[in-house]
Design brief:
The structure is a single chain. This protein is mostly helical and about 210 residues long. It has one domain (about 1-200): Fumarate Reductase Cytochrome B subunit. It contains seven helices and two strands. It has helices at about 10-35, 45-70, 85-90, 115-140, 145, 155-180, 185-195; strands at about 1-5, 195-200. α1 (about 10-35) packs antiparallel against α2. The two termini are about 15 Å apart.
Length: about 210
């Protein structure tokens, strides 16, 4: 068996991924402190850091969206139901019986069908819930002037934001777990650091 190396993740892609991961972790840690789950740095500092991380992430997303569309990388996230059942079977059964992975990454197909559906749920539901409720929360002082206070309550926005935060946290930990499901525990993490994906397969014999 030999390892074939393919340059999958571009430099900006890796920067964006790890920067976003750091900012999301900061927002989770400070967010749950604001929620009152524990006390690490104090409520006021947690609010300030949470807000700073949120604005920084929005700026990062603005650059990333521009990068995605100028490089056509946005096509990586187009959902597909093809081979979804094969991926579900692999993650629930095949991975524990050492079955071969039903999906092989390429430069033009970095995400398997199940990952694409998960990212669709993140982009279409979880992120709008988190960011929409977060912005309403942040600009609560302007509700009266905008006439929003007639339709929303702070309690409803807080509950929506907390629900979104729990969904994002679940997505984060599932994502981290799935990074360990490569041909080695750290194969996917290493690929996101170096850009090179290693996939073990038998190379053709000489003369074939």
């Amino acid at each position: 068996m030999n390892a074939a190396r393919i340059y999958i993740y571009k430099r900006y892609e890796r920067f964006w991924h790890w920067s976003q991961a750091l900012l999301v972790i900061i927002m989770m840690v400070t967010g749950f402190e604001i929620h009152g789950s524990y006390s690490l740095m104090g409520f006021q500092k947690a609010v300030q850091l949470h807000t700073l991380a949120a604005w920084t992430l929005l700026v990062l997303w603005a650059f990333t969206i521009f990068w995605q569309f100028t490089t056509d990388e946005w096509k990586q996230y187009l959902p597909s139901l093809k081979n979804v059942m094969a991926m579900i079977h692999y993650y629930t059964i095949g991975i524990f019986t050492h079955s071969p992975h039903p999906f092989r990454k390429t430069v033009v197909q970095k995400h398997n069908p199940l990952q694409r559906l998960a990212y669709l749920a993140l982009l279409a539901f979880i992120s709008p819930l988190v960011w929409g409720s977060g912005l309403f929360y942040l600009f609560y002082g302007s509700w009266n002037a905008l006439g929003i206070d007639k339709y929303l309550t702070l309690e409803f926005v807080a509950i929506a934001h907390t629900a979104g935060a729990f969904m994002m946290t679940a997505f984060f930990f599932i994502h981290v777990y799935l990074t360990t499901t490569g041909h080695t525990v750290f194969a996917h993490i290493k690929a996101m650091i170096t850009g090179w994906e290693e996939a073990e397969h038998e190379l053709p014999k000489a003369g074939h």
